[in-house]
Amino acid sequence: MSDDLQINTGTKEEQYKTLLPQIFAIIDGEPDLTANLANITAALKEQFGWLWVGFYLVKDNELVLAPFQGPVACTRIKKGRGVCGTAWANAKTLIIPDVEKFAGHIACSSLSKSEIVLPIIKNEKVVGVLDVDSELLNHFDKIDAVNLQRIIEAIIL
């Protein structure tokens, strides 16, 4: 696989259609989790230009910051706190159109306006989350949820 991504500027669906096979090719056969998570975040950030995209992994009953792209982030998040901790506690994808209206939102960056968080589930247990923030209100939707879930399913934890 080439080190350069083919960037698609079409519709959101077209962008994912071009990007996902490239991500799958990058992580195929690579057993190192850190390397795979780092490349996934870089590819998503490069394609979509989101404010922040990254992973948190469950360690010692907390979400601990893992590979990400974007501004400095919160290092640890307790279960049930903020969007990430709530997605973890509920084992459910959360799409937040306006983070200011989410009770208990943790503002790692004041620039964040909307967010999507997907739990990473292995053996019926949440082992991490994929977190994406945008500087735009109402930026994420079901298209993002479905396609980001496909990426999560390809990650081997």
Low-pLDDT sequence parts: none
Average of pLDDT: 93
CATH topology: Beta-Lactamase
CATH superfamily: GAF domain
Helix content: 25-40%
Element-level helix/strand string: HHEEEHEEEH
Under the CATH scheme, which class?
Answer: Alpha Beta
Quick summary of this structure?
The chain has 157 residues and is an alpha+beta fold. 34% of the residues lie in helices and 26% in strands.
Could you walk me through the main structural features you see in this protein, from its secondary elements to its overall organization?
There is one protein chain. By secondary structure, this protein is an alpha+beta fold. It has one domain (about 10-155): Beta-Lactamase (2-Layer Sandwich), CATH 3.30.450. The chain contains four helices and six strands; from the N terminus they run ααβββαβββα. The chain has a six-stranded antiparallel β-sheet with strand order 3-2-1-6-5-4, sandwiched between helices. Strand 5 and strand 6 (about 125-135) form a beta hairpin. Helix 1 (about 10-25) runs antiparallel to helix 2 (about 35-50) and helix 1 runs parallel beside helix 4 (about 140-155). The protein starts with 11 loop residues before the first helix and ends with a helix.
